[in-house]
Amino acid sequence: QVQLVESGGGSVQDGGSLRLSCAFSVDRHKTNCVAWFRQRPGQEREGLAVIDLGGGAETYIDSVKGRFTISRDNAKNRLYLQLNSLKTEDTAMYYCAKDNVSGPRGQGTQVTVS
Asked: What are phi and psi of 14, to 5 degrees?
């Protein structure tokens, strides 16, 4: 059974930082990657970053490169997203997902930048 639970969101000022966490429970034999994406009201999901659970390779969309960092702790079954230099346009619900943005996801954690 796949379970993902996000935490760490909150309200910050422009330029601030947050660290999101995702506790995940997945079948490692059937899961290569976990991802972070966000969704604003009325908009489609926007994939942000993906990390390979084995080798640790990271992939980011251009708009967050240098500001966001994805990491994982396989021993703790934890996925992280460090958000730095936050902008108002980063305001959204943030989710972690198995494999990609279309995969099973958690309930999300809200990030508000003002």
From this structure: -50, 130
